[in-house]
Amino acid sequence: MERIDILLSIVYLLLFPGFLFLFAFSLFTEYLDRKIYARIQRRVGPPFLQPFADLVKLSAKEDIVPEKAEHFMFTAAPLIGLAAIFAAFLYLPIVSTTGLHSFNGDLVVVLYLLTIPTLAMFLGGWYSGNVFGQKGGMRVASLLFSYEIPFFLALLTPALLQGSWKMADITRFEATHPLEFVVSLLGFFIGLIALQGKLERLPFDIPEAETEIVAGPLVEYSGRRLALFRLARDAEMVVGAGLIAVVFLAGPEPILPLEPVYLSWLVAALVFLLKTLFVIFLLILLKSAVARIRTDQMISFAYQWLIPLTLVQIFIAIIVRFFGGI
Amino acid sequence: MGYVKLPIGPQHPALKEPENFTITLDGERVVNVDIRIGYIHRGIEKLMETRTYTQNLYLVERICGICSYAHVYNFTQNVEEILGLQIPKRAEYIRTLFLELERLHSHFLWLGVAGHEIGFDTLFMYTWQDREVVQDLLEMISGNRVNYAMNAIGGVRRDVSQEHRKKVLESMDYLEKRAEFYKNVAINEKTILARAENVGILKPQVALRLTAVGPTARASGISVDIRKDDPYASYLDTPFEVITTDTNDVLGRVVVRVLEIVESIKIIRYLMEHLPEGDILKKAPRKIPEGESISHTEAPRGEDIHYLHSNGTEKPDRYKVRTPTLANLPATAEMLKETYLADVPIIVAAIDPCMGCMDRVLLLKDGQEKPGELISGEQLRRYGIKWYAERGWNA
Amino acid sequence: MTTPEEHILEVLKGLPVLMTRSHRLFLSIPREDLIKTMNILSSELAIQHLSTITARDKGNDLELLYHFMLQGVVITIKTTCPKNDPTIDSIVTIFPSAILYEREIHDILGIVPRGHPDLRRLVLPDEWVGGYPLRKDWKPPAEQEAEE
User: Fold this and answer.
1) Is residue A260 scored above 80 in pLDDT?
2) What gap in Å lies between CA C52 and CA B114, rounded to an integer?
3) Per-residue pLDDT tens over the stretch C70-113
4) Binning pLDDT at 50, 70 and 90, where does residue A319 land?
5) Do B374 and C142 touch (CB under 8 A)?
């Protein structure tokens, strides 16, 4: 019996819904991102396997560490980023009400793990020894708080409504109280915008701003390391969107008690996927309709609009809770 | 972390052609800008002295890949003035048509580039698709998309047929709708406003003092347009307005260009509806008598001035070209001061830079022993063959 | 109503102004009078628009043409300087936009504008040692070497 548990854990960790699944889903998301973006711009867009082909090709390319770069940190940065995201993914409830582990406070752990790729980006840029990379790294660091604070606060709203820091409890609560979504609608959109900032996508792709600082932190990266960074970026999008789907849209819930049990897992995973894709679709729409804003504009946008609105959302949540909840 | 020197160019994604802006930064603020040009100096002025007028007709077109026609027009106008040649009215109209079609595609192109510089790639894709409509018209009439080879000394080489006229008028209806759409996007889209409003300020006095030209000057409220001030081609017949705004910023330059698209459409409609009958080409002699002539036109980017000195032979004695971008550079350096790094690409793009200017390839040798060496085309060819042979490839 | 040409001719009365066609005025002056003439253009005609400066090799002399524009009229001031003394007064203080054009003529024809604040190369590479390409006696360095 115990052996089967271990086997199941390994399957969960490595195959489904673990690393392999995340890997495939990340590349699929990149395909969707590029394809929909292209169709909106009246272009044809890439074929289905293009993101995978890009990854394979990049991995086979010459991998250069510039002389001026700090070798260890330069190499470690993409790995740290990728590892943190894969770790975060394991806590998301996908096939059942819980992830691999579930405990009170797992939401906070995922939020923390999702901050690490940003720091990895800063370290990679800073230690690349290139003036554009350092400029980009500085931008990453200076913008960090303008989206992390709203992101944290917005995602805590459902937890406040329900009174638990456990994602399993939150999804359960949402599945039984659909009104909860209406109350936290503001938080949902703030979460989306902040996630766009976290992922450094338009209009917040300031650290990478191709026409200003070439590619920012990624400017000296090539070959395998660049491939890892790109994969980390795609995976971050999946995990970020997945987290929003879990916290606001009830994740894999409602879980149907089907027989045999793996059928119910599959249905749950499908529900989770659809919700995640919905969130990703909103992110793509936002990206294609705007221009890039400036650093100062983003900071003032965050402090004048995002953070006050998040506080309003939290206030609403507290009032609702105080008057007996939903 | 003190001042940082950031090289924008000669190779940089924000620049479509090699130039160098060395920017001194204090954090995100620009403290000083140093502009270095000449990376694509091709020696056309010198080369022109060694070629006949007919050959030069095609060389002059290759000064610029966008406003090629403005240069050819200036060249032919100069030669015809020295010859005292009056070209047929129909040819004048066709030339004007090309000047305006060129302005149309150049402005659409610019709009896309401006969008790209501020990260608005959707706008870039949209405008470049609409630009294709103009490119198709140019290809339909002249057979070429970029260097039209339309002018001959004494007229134009190809006629505009009845079908061409119909097609041009149809396309103008479509483009007018699109121009209206872009105008709405430019003045309503929040992120564009955030990036263009009060950015790259150029006060009218400064613009005048530093002789900004074209849409850059007109966005600072200066009503300067060679088409009105010194009418050439058939601009005297055609009704149109000179567009100016007084916002002095990048947004003003966007608005001026979008409204100029509308004016160009009006001019093209008028030309197509009033196209006179008659010949399109007069015979011109090969030798040009001694004389000098100055011709200037309102190219899409501003005043483009050419000077020709002929010495009675088949080849010009001196030919001088001043492109609008050079005239706008001092003003650009002024606009860049005290801005943000993020605004540098859009401010530079807002003058619509187009560096055109010798038979010269510069070879940089390893180890900097001999820093610059001039080699001829033949030497370069041999060098190339050797280079590939050394690596075991077939040249 | 007076045309812009008539107005300019009126102001420049007494000077040998040549009108080749409408909108084209030429005025030849000795190089000593350059600054004086520029001051007249700047103060009395209020011209600010210097289109460009053309320089050309006339054999023993180098000719400079300053193209100005006022209301569409191109006014060209012509002056010459001998090849053995290729200097001219810089007009940057009067017309700031001349800064690039004077650098250009210095670069390609070797005319030295006296008093110019920044005479770095403009169009030719910084390491350029091949002479002044737009002079008629100039040969590409490859040919120069072959002759030596």
Assistant:
1) no
2) 28
3) 888 898 999 999 988 888 888 888 888 888 888 888 888 888 88
4) confident
5) yes
Q: Please state the domain extents for chain A.
A: 2-322
Mean of pLDDT values over B236-255: 88
The tens digit of pLDDT for each residue in B77-132 reads 999 989 888 889 899 999 999 999 999 999 998 888 888 888 888 888 899 999 99
Chain C nearest-CA distance from B357, in A, is 9
**Cβ–Cβ of A294/B195 closer than 8 Å?**
yes
Give, in order, the Cα–Cα distances in Å from B183 to each of A285, B77, B325, C5.
22, 35, 25, 39
Size of interface A-B (CB pairs under 8 A): 82
A146-172 residue pLDDT tens: 888 888 888 888 888 777 888 878 888
Q: So what's the pLDDT on residue B367? A: 33
3-state secondary structure (DSSP) of residue B347: helix
Contact: B374, C67; criterion CB under 8 Å: no
Q: Topology of domain C4-147, per CATH?
A: Beta Polymerase; domain 2 (3.30.460)
Q: Are B321 and B355 in contact (CB under 8 A)?
A: no
Task: Match 């038979």 to its residue by tokens.
Answer: B359
Find tokens 């338009």 and name the residue.
Answer: A202
In chain C, which residues have their Cβ closer than 8 Å to the Cβ of B359? 140
A62 part of contact set with chain B, CB < 8 Å: no
Asked if residues B79 and B217 have their Cβ atoms less than 8 Å apart, the reply is: no
**Chain C: closest CA distance from residue B41 (Å):** 6
Structural domains in chain B? 44-336 (1.10.645.10), 361-395 (no CATH)
The minimum CA-CA distance between A131 and chain B, rounded to whole Å, is 7
d(CA A293, nearest CA chain B) in Å? 6
In sequence order, which ranges of chain B are alpha helices (DSSP H)? 44-48, 53-61, 68-83, 89-117, 121-142, 162-188, 190-196, 204-209, 214-218, 226-229, 250-273, 324-336, 344-350, 377-390
Write out the two tokens for B41. Answer: 């100096």
Chain B residues in contact with C56 (beta carbon < 8 A): 309, 317-318, 320
pLDDT beyond 80 at B224:
yes
Residues whose CB falls within 8 Å of the CB of residue B54, separated by 6 or more in sequence, listed in order? B153, B286
Cβ-Cβ contacts under 8 Å, B12 against chain A: 214
